[in-house]
Amino acid sequence: RRFRGRLYQQNIYQILYTMSTYLRSAALNDSNIDFKPKTRECVYYKESRRHKTRAAIIVSVGRQSSTPYTLQVRRNGTVAEEKKVSRELLKRVDPEAEEYRALEEDFKVLADVLARKKKKKTKDEAEDSSAQAESVVPYLPLHEALKSEKVAKKKPQMLRIATLNVCHLGGVHVPPDRDRDGVTTRGPKKLSWEKVLNLAATVKGSLADAVVLQEVDTGAQAAVSCVAREIGPDWRVVLTGATSNNPTSHGAKECYALIYNESRVKEVLGGAGAAAEGSLRVQSFMYDRMNTGDSAFRSDAGWGNGNRADFTFDGASGARLPGFFRIHHSGSERSLVLGTIHAAFSNAEVRALQFKAIKSLLPETLDSGRVIFALLGDFNSDATNTRNMASSVSFADTAQGSALAEDLKERSFVNVSSPNNATSIGGMHYDEVFVPSAVHGRRHAHVFPTRPRFEALAAYAKNGSGDRGEGAGEQLDPKVVFTPVEMRSRNSSKTDELTTFNSEVYTDHFLVFVDLEFKGDAEGSFSKMTVAELRAELKKRNQKVSGKKAELIARLTAEGGGD
Predict the structure, then answer these.
(1) What is the H or E stretch that residue 14 is in?
(2) With a threshold of 0.70, does the pTM exceed it?
(3) Which of 63, 90, 357, 470 is most buried, with most CB under 10 Å away?
């Protein structure tokens, strides 16, 4: 009842106010009741009955219901501005009336003043717009700039494997012209198509055959598939499960992904001869100290049946589990096994425990003639919270780094990712590649694009895209240059700028790759082939096909085509 009473009173007050406004308007001018002046309209303005009527022009109409108008008024030879003027103080102008002719000169002065103000405002806006246009950093699509980058070619018998942290690759917005297969957008977030194009251009430009990805959202199947399709029609995708069983951990929302060139992998795994006609079987596993994967995987990985290190570390923060991918060729019985891990970043204690347990992920015995094995990923090696590590010292020079090198040596593995190469946008070395000593030879891992080239591409943005860095150019921030202008408006600080670039434009890591091949006796492998098969292999390599079997084998071996 009290509520209805107050509501009734409010309605009565509103009715009375409306009636009084109506009557006051009628008292001033009967024709003024429905008068609603607009911006730049000439009106009569009379503050009260004691004041005389003056010439005025409406400057703006606000949202206030009772006093919405701002006027310019001609008073005593000067132009003044009146704010918060109610409608009942205004009256419609009749150009034919005597009253208007008496104030006609004042109306002309007001119109002239308003026109000059508008002209000045337009000029100022144009100058501001011009200055802003000059100060805006030009936008250069990274995926276009990367097309001009050159990378070392690989031999036909080699597989180029790579690692790339994609910085929270999640759901993706697919433009209508790209939605070829009716891909739906799924995942905890939607990203721009810019990131898809840039990641695809990086993989494509590196000439990689298989790439393991870290920081992939568990619902990002559609997003990773979009990246694969942009690389090429032969590219396929497989994801692992979540990297942590702890629901409060970041790893519970992350997984690993493998994108690979099916035809290239099949070609290298199949080798030459009739065995090449087999098919590929692709599997993904999350690490389990007791029973990772199936028996075939454990046989290829050379693990045996013993218990291994516990990578959960009792549910510690940042303790993501390692993941594994196995691609097996049914004809040749050869396999590619890739292990990957995303080590803790902010928790130095957990990261130290992960480094100590790396040996559990490596083969005890490995048949390098039948299996290519590599462990690669984002190890956050040079994170500055590593104990006894100064900013001028790399992880490789610390006690932890030396201990890890000894563990690798014990398992006949070597780290081919040089600590001197920056693998992150910020210039730090985070990503590592561990491969068997027997198969890496003198090769080492490469970064694509290298950080100097990444900065050089941005530095010459004002000289046009595609510039490979020759000649003088202005140094510009790559994170700004490669970010579309419409995305920059959301950045109010350097932190926002970095977040937008890492999450929506590209990532905070560079791709790291290495070329590997099966170890074996090339002559012995070719000796199992028939003369017809040897000649077919030579023909594929544009080599001379005449001669006896021994000559054909010698020609293939000298050509470097051994598997």
Answers:
(1) helix 2-28
(2) no
(3) 90
